[in-house]
């Protein structure tokens, strides 16, 4: 049994990703529970330096998740990183809360890490077509070591070809509220990423974080590109 | 006072930035090669970090030991609490000793304290001898990278500059430009009365200072003139020669991908009795200028920096905006982490926000400074002091009050769905107020029925 | 002049004591000296020196070294050398062959110093001994001393360094661990890796900026 922490962006902007995660896990005989009171881990506020606001959301998240059992699966490297690395410190001043946060952190897994490392999945039974390229979201990549797992899972998808993205590990320029606070810089970084994506000739760009993907998809659409941006859960859903 | 964003806007997409980017990428590639070939790199970085943190934790002891050793070697030490004290001391030494001409090796610290201006105000001639810094000086420009000051300039610009400033025929061939600079500076080196350098790393136990250069100007500036003044940031020190070795193993590899730079120069006191050449006087000016405040504060880890520039080369923000956008001596990730603590928080509060916290800097830092963590801490400091992006406060407070009440949150999601359905194409192309920052360059997928709502529909 | 004025120094050092670092080791961590590879370090040294745009020369004897020096002096007129070279009588031989030696003793008087050093503008070749060869990077270690002027390896276009095979070390860290004395035996120790260079103009590598354009290392033995 696994708990799904779907993340606020998936909830609001890409609910199909949540559906895909549920379908995918159930296909692997893992029953999924969705703690309904979940909302947002507080990352945007935390990253912007607003610790008081972030803490309120973090505390709520801890309470909701600590009342559950089993692995907490998160289809986002950055949210998983927030829960695992930052929330415990954010409530470090309150011993019981800190302990609860540590318990929650210990159970939290980004989706592909859960599939590959916890479940030992090599292929999910999904099929596909065309070519895709993978963008490695920074928080998952550098803070959680997520790079090979998504690539191996995608390579096992029958019919789907994967091509390497140049500068795959270079940031796309989303950065949370950075996208609004430093828009020209964000746009310049996005432009480089989109050029690289289009240069691969792939019809789909795949990523593990809906935050990056919204930014990339928004840029692709504005350019009139036919390249689609998909979350890896959607690719792996059989 | 302009903002980071305003400065960045002026530079993004311009040819100088393209040059900076390709230069930074080249350094990145070279670094990767050097690191791949050096099996001990990871262990060396761990050791380098341990050495730097141990030193910073005992900085008073090591600076005291260093100062005693310099004096025992026949040198002088001046402890400068701030820029003014440092500049006054150096100017006094110059005027007391009848100095007229000064040659300078590259030193960011001397830029930080505006030493050249102070010396020139006293009628002293100051000549930058690092080729990049010379170009910056002659063109009245500012450096765009902490170890490669003129990444942003083309050889055509340099050719024109030399023609105009040095009265030589125009050429844009780098070899010829190089020869012109060598010729121009040679005479000046040999007739200068004082040489001023920075200090890459000082060694406490021996009272030595180590200078790392490629051109040889660092050696000439500190050998030809009769007086050598070394300006040193108080944090740039290690306990022993063995520690120096560790730092040197990671420094050049991280900066340019060289195993060692052309000249790793260790100076221990002025010329000794019987030695044929070298300066007769050595003055080491140890500068605080805000460093002790950083040391006492919550971002003290940044003082471990050995100024290799690898974080600049790795930074995706630096590579699209270049160095000038930072508006200050220390650029890129290290600059963003250091400046709001070293100088005024309010003035520099936007620098730490010029980052997506991607972590590329931490990945390459030879002393493993957790720059993303420091940037988050600077942001927290800025918000607490109410000089951060305070426009976000009300929206985030609103969001927090929604996100701590599940029913309100679900209601917000349905409101989003309602608005989303109004967008026929499924894509939002224009948002008001701050939202325009998104839609100016990107579309936004319109929200639909939330996962929460769909889950309820599942009936699970 | 203020020489570490006590009051200012104490106040400064007090402020320098403000740092606390939970992670910092209590004792000086000290050196890390990675093992070198097996095999011929001298061959590695020569390869690395060449890769750094220097010119290695291996000779069996002192006479062989002399021949290389005479060959390299062709087309030049002036040189700087002192008595500590592993090729005894080299300076005398060059003078005998018609080359002019440039004096390396810099006077202490300011005016005389300037006059003397202006002579260096005509110095073409500097010949020095070394204190060590570093195989990993193709570097040479040169320390200043009574018979070892800094300028000889710095000012001329051509620097000829004379070394013997027993002076080889694997790396700088190795050298520091075995020859800590060398670091402070003179007022200056310089580790030289190839000729002087810059990439400041459009990242184009050019050699011989302010230091020598050519570095020759003759290894005897």
Spell the H/E element sequence of chain A. Answer: EHHEHHEHHEHEHHEHHEHEH
Counting DSSP E segments of at least 2 residues, the number of strands of chain A comes to 8
**Helix content range of chain A:** 40-55%
Q: Give the CA-CA distance, first to last residue of chain C.
A: 51 Å
Q: SSE order of chain C, as H and E?
A: HHEHEHEHEEEEEHHEEEE
The residue-averaged pLDDT of chain A reads 97
Q: Which key terms come to mind for this protein?
A:
heterotrimer, A: 238 residues, alpha/beta, Rossmann fold, 4-stranded parallel beta sheet, 13 helices, C: 221 residues, 6-stranded parallel beta sheet, 7 helices
Structure notes:
The complex is a heterotrimer of chains A (238), B (460) and C (221). Chain A is of the alpha/beta class and 238 residues long. In chain A, 55% of the residues lie in helices and 11% in strands. Chain A has 2 domains: 2-117, no CATH class; 123-236, Rossmann fold (3-Layer(aba) Sandwich), CATH 3.40.50. In chain A, the strands form 2 sheets. In chain A, strands 2-1-3-4 form a 4-stranded parallel beta sheet, with helices on both faces. In chain A, strands 6-5-7-8 form a 4-stranded parallel beta sheet, sandwiched between helices. In chain A, β7, α12 and β8 (228-231) form a beta-alpha-beta unit. In chain A, α11 crosses α12 (210-223). Chain A is globular, with a radius of gyration of 17 Å. Chain B has 23 helices and 12 strands. The longest helix of chain B has 23 residues, at 15-37. In chain C, strands 1-12-7-4-2-3 form a 6-stranded parallel beta sheet, with helices on both faces. Chain C starts with 5 loop residues before the first helix and ends with a strand. Chains A and B meet through α1, α2, α3, α4 and α8 of A and α1, α18, α19, α20 and α21 of B. β9 of chain B pairs antiparallel with β9 of chain C.
